[in-house]
Each structure stands twice: as C-alpha cells, then as structure tokens.
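Quick log. Single chain, no ligands specified.
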Amino acid sequence: MRLVIDTDTASDDAVALLLALRTPGVTVEAVTTVAGNVPLPQATRNALVTIEFAGADVPVHPGRAAPLLRPLRTAQDVHGQDGMGGARLPEPTRSPRPEHAVDTLIRLARAHPGELTLVTLGPLSNVAAALLIEPRLLRRYRRVYCMAGAPDAQGNVTAVAEYNMWADPEAAAIVLAAAGDITLIGWNVSREHAVITPADQERLRALNSPRADFVLEINTAVEAYCREVTGLDGFDLPDPIAMAVALSPGLVRRAERVHAAVAVGDEARGLLMIDRRRTAPPPNVTVVWEVDSAGFKAAIERMCAP
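-> predicted structure:
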C-alpha cells in the first residue's frame, strides 16, 4: 500500500502517522500539512518530529494556513498549545519541502493514477483547494479515507459537529460533492471503539518502549479534555482508528453507503447530514459505524512493541 497523508498534526495525528510508518508493506509517499488542530507551522513541525521519531524519511509539504472562507479556529484547547500535550520533543533536523501541499496532492495523483490511497486526518482545506484545480482528483486516488464527521450528530466541538468538518465546512462540502471512493470514519467510531482506557494505558506502559511512552505523553492534554468535556474514560484516538481502517479495511464491522452532506450554516455548522429517504440523491460516501476495537488496540500495541 502506498499512502499520501494530509494532516493537521497534533497528538492523535502523530499516532496515526506512526502507525502508518511502522506497518510492514506500507510506503508513505508524502505528508501534506494543513492548519487545524494547531497553526500550520506547528502542524508541519509536529509532522517532521514524528517522522524522524519513527526513523523514516518522508517529504513533508505545508499547505493551507486557514480554511477556505473562515478564520482559523484551532483545537489547542484539546491538544495543548503545541498540539503534543507539552511533551518535551527534539527539534526536527529536516525541513519541509517547498512545493505547496495542494500542488503535491495533484502531482502525485496525476503521476500515479489508481495507485495511491489518500488518508486525511484534518480539515479538508487542502483537498478541497486541490479539487477546485483538478476536479477529477479523488478519482485518481485508489481510495480516500477521511477522519471526518459525526454521522450520529453527537459532536466533540459543538453539540452536533466533529472538529474537522466544523473547522472548514465549505471544504468538506466540496469534497463530499466530488466523485471518488470516499470512506468517512467519524468521531462516533473513535468515541465507541478507540478509547485508550486506563487499563489500556497500563498495558502500553508495561511494554517499556519509547514508542509507547511517546503515545502516552503526547496525549496527556487530550485525556484531560476527555475527562472534562467529552466524558470518556481515558483518551480516544480518532485519527489512528481512521488510519487503521485505511491500512486494514477488514477491521470494519459495519458500514453503510449513503448520501451525505455537511451543514455550513452557523447554527448547525459542520453537521454531517445522512439522507436515507427513498428520494435521496445517489450515495456519495461510505460511512463507517463499527470497527473491531480489540483489533485496533492490538495494532497500537504492535506498533509500540520494542
């Protein structure tokens, strides 16, 4: 499998990057960064730090520093000001590439039609901007997996919206309207199947490995947010479970082909709207509802093993 990963790199994105980089048989062709969880320079730095921590050499291409039409609203209240829970991490020794992320997404899709899988972990600003230039973009990727949306209308940034869709709903609308093999892994999946409980954390600590320590340390701020806001017992990993589904689609236990749209009005901004009426437009996405939680956690433990 050959991946292109678009990320607003904070703590859960970093775990997802590590999972991809540590999976045998997977090649990450490029990482593109976008503003979201943290401002663009911080997202780019965090991607570079994570890739070096994994012992990999992958080009990182910075992209959009803001949503298409709205001011940037970060999630630093969730992930910490640095996006990595304040963990003491070394400065990266490599630099990002000069080619803009939007140009990278287009170039790779045109050069390798049908060969690459695109995984998006942040707001869809880069992908939407690329679609405005190359409307056939997503059809040129083999598959597209997006950590985006709350199809059950239980949100994590508002009552009904998941952060990535809420941060740039106009970009999400462009992506949902595009032709391509798109799978959405929303916050519902993370909330129900990807919570790293205190018992799970103890198993990771018992591995006594640098990667396990990395995963736990960078998610300390997220755990506090989960305890105080979303009410989860531990911390959840939305981007890693989306990455796990992309790497191992067999983890999916239930999914549904539906027509989905996103609300851009202020009151319900970012709401993922599923249309099951007989008169609904044709399905445009696959929405994942259930994932093998034990299989996901086993993949995290394998990644962290010494």
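The longest strand covers residues 252-262.
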